[in-house]
Amino acid sequence: MYKLISTKIFDKRLRNLKRILRLSDSDVKEAIEEIKYTLSELQQNGTLPPEFSPHELTDDPWKGWQEYHILDDLLVVNLKVEKNHIIWLTTITTHHELRKGPFK
Questions:
Q1: pTM of the full predicted structure?
Q2: Chunked in runs of 10, what are the mean pLDDT values of the chain (104 residues)?
């Protein structure tokens, strides 16, 4: 079992998916359902099914972090600390935003 810890940025973006990421009502509903499912899977297993395309990021400044896909271009970025069984939920973003660098 893993402990999930969310950042303020993650929480804010989850609450404001529609406004921040300009999603439709139906996309927001689907995204929230999928995020809840993936968080449950991460908490139980520390991994996700392949359909979410979980993978490690390889470019700076995100090298070593992980992401997985919700919808087509909605990403959940996290950092897994295997030693302590902790997963830091960092942000919800898009590929374009992720390439810009760290979030403030």
A1: 0.90
A2: 97 93 92 97 96 92 93 93 96 88 62
